[in-house]
Write a structure and sequence with these properties.
The complex is a heterodimer of chains A (357) and B (298).
Chain A: H1 2-14, E1 24-33, E2 36-37, E3 43-44, E4 47-57, E5 62-66, H2 73-80, E6 88-93, E7 96-97, H3 105-111, E8 112-115, H4 129-139, H5 144-157, H6 162-165, H7 175-187, E9 193-197, H8 205-222, E10 225-229, H9 233-239, E11 242-247, E12 250-256, H10 257-262, H11 267-274, H12 315-319, E13 335-336, H13 350-354
Parallel strand pairs in A: 5-10, 5-11, 8-9, 9-10
Antiparallel strand pairs in A: 1-4, 1-6, 2-3, 6-7, 11-12, 12-13
Chain B: H1 23-32, H2 35-52, H3 54-57, H4 90-126, H5 128-142, H6 146-157, H7 161-188, H8 191-198, H9 203-239, H10 251-258, H11 266-295
Classes of the chains: A alpha/beta (357), B mainly alpha (298).
Chain lengths: 357, 298
C-alpha cells in the first residue's frame, strides 16, 4: 500500500492553477470522420461526430455526459484522451495546452487515464492481470519488480485479492472483476482525471452498483476527477455533480445534475428524462417521448439539430442555430442551447419559458 | 458455545492460489488430446530422427551402388525397399534424402516467417500509406503462381541448394506478409492496444508486448502449413535440375532419376513421392491440429 499512500499524498503538489481553475477545459472541439474531397476541395459525406463541443471539468467533480448512442459521447472521450486527433479545438489540462512544451503528450498521459466499455476487449488476453496493470508504470520507467508490486497494491485496492488474482488471465475473470482490473490499470499511472466511457454499462445491475461504489471510494481516496459517460440517466444521477447532455455531436444542455434532472430546460433533455421508466405504475409512460431515430450526422438538419423531433419546433428553430446560452441563474452555471430559453430569439415559447418559476 | 458470528460460511469456494497455465501451456495440452495431430507429430518426429541419425539408422551407404543389383523390387532380401537405377539401396537413400528434403521444407519457410512477419506486422500496425506501399509491392509477387515464381527465381539465380532456398524464401514472403498484415490490422484497433497507447507506450513497446503475442500464433500456424508446399516445390526444383544435384540423395531428385524406371519398378520409383506425400500431409495435419488447439480462447 505504500506506493498508493505516497501517491495520494503527492497529488496536491501537482495542482498548478489552484482549485478555481478547471482541471480540464475544452473549447471548440471538432472531429469529422470520413468523407471525400470533391472537385472544389470541399469535403462531402463526412460524419460530424463531434461538432464544436465546449466543456469544463472542475477539480474533484464528476461531469456526467449523457445522450443517445451515436451522439458523440465516446468520440469526445477519445478526443480528450488523444486517442484520435481532433480536427479543431483546444484542450487545456490545468491551464496548460495538451501537446504544448509545458505539457507533452507523455506527461498528459500520466495525468489522464481512461476505462473502456468492453472489459474483455480492453485487456490483452495473453497477459496476466498483474502484467497488464504493471505495463503503464513500466513504460514510464519504473522497475519491473516495483511495477508489479504497485499492481498488487492496486489489485487489493479495487477489491481483488492479489494472491488469488494477480497471476490470472482475463478469460478467468468475470465481467465485474475484469472491469476492476481495468480501473486498477487506469489508476496505475496515478492520474488526476479518469475518463469512464460507459465503464459500467456492460455489467449486470448488482455488479454495476458495486463498481460504482468502488469508483466513488477511489475518487475520495485519491482525489480524482471523473468524466463519466453513460446512456443510463440513473447511473449518471448517482455519480455526477454536473451533467452535460449531448445530441448529434453538440452539447445541448449543461448544468448541475440535480437541477438538470429535476428541471430540464431543453426539450431533448425533457424527452430523455421522460423515457426513463418510472417505478410508479400511476406514472407510467403513456406515449413515446421521442419519435424516430436521430437525424443522419452526415447531413445534420439546419438550425437547431433537434428541431426535426421537437414538439415545440418553430420556424426560427430551422433557421438559426441556438448557442449554449448564458447562465440560467442557478448556483453553478446552467446553460442550454434552445431558442425557448432566449427571450430575444423570437420563438413563441420563449416568453412562456422565461416565466417559469 | 459457538456464536453465530464465529461460523464463517464460504458461499464461494476460493480457488486455489495456483499459477495459471499460460496460453501456450493450454494450447499444448489441447494439442496433446488431438489424436490425429499426435500421429502426425509422431510421423514427423520419426522422419526427423531418422534423417538426423541417418548414419546409424540406415543399413548401407547412400552413394555406393552395385550395377549387378539394379532395380530390385520392394521386399528384396538384401534391399528391403528395393534398389534404384544405379543399384543403390532405396531405404538408405530415402533416410538420407530426408535430410535435404526437410531442410528445404523448413528453412525457406522459417526465413520467410521472420521476414514476412516483420513486414506484415509493421505494415499492419503503422497502417496508412506505409501499409499501402508495402502491401502493393507484396501483391506484385503474390500475383505470380508460386511454382512459376520459384522456377523463374531459381533459374535466374542458377542451380544449387542455396539459390533454391533463397528463391523459395522469396516465394513464401508474400503470403506470410499478407496473413501477418491482416491479423495485425485486426489487433491494432482492439481496446487493449488503445489502452496501451493511452498508457504512453511507444509503437515498438506496444508491438512487442501487446501485438506480437496475439499475432505470432496465427502466422505460425499458417507458416507450418507452408512447409509441405515448400517441400513439394523444392522437390520440383530438384526434379527440374534447379535444386540439389546427383548423386545427392534428395526425394525430389530421386523421383526425377527414377522416372526412367517407372515401367520396370513402378513401386520403387514411387517411393520418394510417397515420402514427400507422407511428410507434407503430416505437417499439414499437425498445422490443422495446432490451429484448432489455438482457436479456443486461452
Amino acid at each position: 500500500m505504500s506506493a498508493i499512500l505516497e501517491a495520494s499524498g503527492a497529488a496536491p503538489e501537482r495542482d498548478r492553477g489552484g482549485p478555481a481553475q478547471p482541471l480540464l477545459s475544452v473549447t471548440g472541439l471538432v472531429k469529422h470522420f470520413g468523407g471525400r474531397r470533391d472537385w472544389s476541395g470541399k469535403r462531402r459525406g463526412m460524419v460530424r461526430a463531434v461538432d464544436g463541443v465546449d466543456l469544463e471539468i472542475f477539480k474533484g467533480e464528476t461531469l456526467g455526459i449523457v445522450g443517445e448512442s451515436g451522439c458523440g459521447k465516446s468520440t469526445t472521450a477519445r478526443l480528450v484522451m488523444q486517442i484520435i486527433r481532433p480536427d479543431r479545438g483546444e484542450i487545456l489540462f490545468d491551464g496548460e495546452a495538451v501537446g504544448s512544451p509545458a505539457l507533452g503528450l507523455q506527461d498528459y498521459r500520466r495525468e489522464t487515464q481512461m476505462v473502456f466499455q468492453d472489459s474483455y476487449a480492453s485487456l490483452n488476453p495473453r497477459l496476466t492481470v498483474e502484467h497488464t496493470i504493471a505495463f503503464g508504470p513500466w513504460v514510464h520507467g519504473e522497475g519491473r519488480r516495483a511495477a508489479v508490486a504497485r499492481a498488487h497494491d492496486l489489485l487489493a485496492r479495487v477489491g481483488l485479492a492479489p494472491e488469488r488474482f494477480a497471476a490470472r488471465y482475463p478469460h478467468e475473470l468475470s465481467g465485474g472483476q475484469r472491469q476492476r482490473v481495468n480501473i486498477a490499470r487506469a489508476l496505475a499511472l496515478q492520474p488526476r482525471l479518469l475518463i469512464l466511457d460507459e465503464a459500467v454499462s456492460a455489467l449486470d445491475k448488482s455488479v454495476e452498483a458495486q463498481v460504482l461504489n468502488l469508483l466513488l471510494d477511489l475518487k475520495a481516496e485519491f482525489g480524482l476527477t471523473y468524466m463519466f459517460i453513460s446512456h443510463d440517466l440513473n447511473v449518471v444521477r448517482f455519480m455526477s455533480d454536473r451533467v452535460m447532455v449531448m445530441y448529434l455531436g453538440k452539447a445541448v444542455e449543461v448544468g448541475p445534475s440535480d437541477v438538470i434532472l429535476k428541471d430540464p430546460r431543453h426539450p431533448y433533455t425533457t424527452a430523455l428524462l421522460a423515457s426513463m421508466p418510472s417505478m410508479d405504475p400511476d406514472n407510467r409512460t403513456e406515449e413515446a417521448p421521442l419519435f424516430g431515430d436521430p437525424p443522419n450526422p452526415i447531413d445534420p438538419p439546419p438550425g437547431c439539430r433537434f428541431h426535426t423531433r421537437c414538439k415545440f419546433a418553430a420556424p426560427v428553430c430551422s433557421a438559426r442555430e441556438p448557442g449554449l446560452g448564458a447562465d440560467l441563474g442557478d448556483d453553478l452555471v446552467h446553460r442550454v442551447a434552445c431558442h425557448m430559453a432566449d427571450p430575444s430569439s423570437g420563438h413563441p415559447g420563449a416568453v412562456a419559458a422565461m416565466e417559469r418559476p | 458455545m459457538a456464536v453465530l458470528s464465529d461460523i464463517r460460511i464460504d458461499t464461494v469456494a476460493p480457488l486455489p492460489a495456483r499459477a495459471s497455465r499460460g496460453y501456450w501451456g493450454s494450447v499444448l495440452r489441447r494439442l496433446m488430446r488431438d489424436p490425429v495431430a499426435m500421429v502426425a507429430a509422431g510421423v514427423i518426429l520419426a522422419i526427423v530422427l531418422a534423417a538426423a541419425f541417418a548414419p546409424f539408422v540406415a543399413p548401407g551407404d547412400p552413394y555406393k551402388g552395385a550395377m549387378l543389383r539394379r532395380l530390385k523390387p520392394i521386399g528384396d532380401a538384401f534391399y528391403w525397399l528395393g534398389s534404384d537405377e544405379l543399384g543403390r539401396d532405396m531405404l538408405t537413400r530415402l533416410i538420407y534424402g530426408g535430410r535435404l528434403s526437410l531442410f528445404m521444407g523448413v528453412l525457406p519457410v522459417a526465413c520467410a516467417f521472420v521476414i514476412g512477419s516483420t513486414l506484415g506486422v509493421f505494415a499492419g500496425y503503422v497502417g496508412g500509406w506505409v501499409n499501402m506501399v508495402v502491401m502493393r509491392v507484396i501483391d506484385v509477387f503474390y500475383a505470380f503462381p508460386s511454382v512459376l515464381l520459384a522456377i523463374a527465381l531459381s533459374g535466374a539465380l542458377g542451380a544449387g541448394i542455396t539459390n533454391a532456398v533463397v528463391s523459395l524464401t522469396i516465394v513464401f514472403i508474400p503470403p506470410i506478409t499478407r496473413v501477418a498484415e491482416s491479423v495485425t490490422t485486426q489487433i491494432r484497433t482492439r481496446d487493449y492496444v488503445e489502452a496501451a497507447r493511452v498508457s504512453g507506450a511507444g509503437a515498438f513497446t506496444i508491438i512487442r508486448v501487446h501485438v506480437l503475442g496475439n499475432v505470432l500464433g496465427p502466422i505460425f500456424v499458417y507458416a507450418t502449413s507452408l512447409i509441405s508446399v515448400s517441400m513439394i516445390l523444392a522437390s520440383g526444383l530438384s526434379f527440374l535440375g534447379l535444386g540439389s544435384k546427383p548423386p545427392e540423395p534428395e526425394w525430389g531428385l530421386m523421383l526425377n532419376t527414377l522416372r526412367t524406371a517407372i515401367y520396370v519398378q513402378p513401386a520403387v520409383a514411387a517411393l520418394p513421392g510417397a515420402m514427400i506425400f507422407i511428410t507434407s500431409i503430416s505437417f499439414n495435419l499437425l498445422s490443422d491440429g495446432l490451429r484448432s488447439a489455438m482457436a479456443v480462447r486461452a
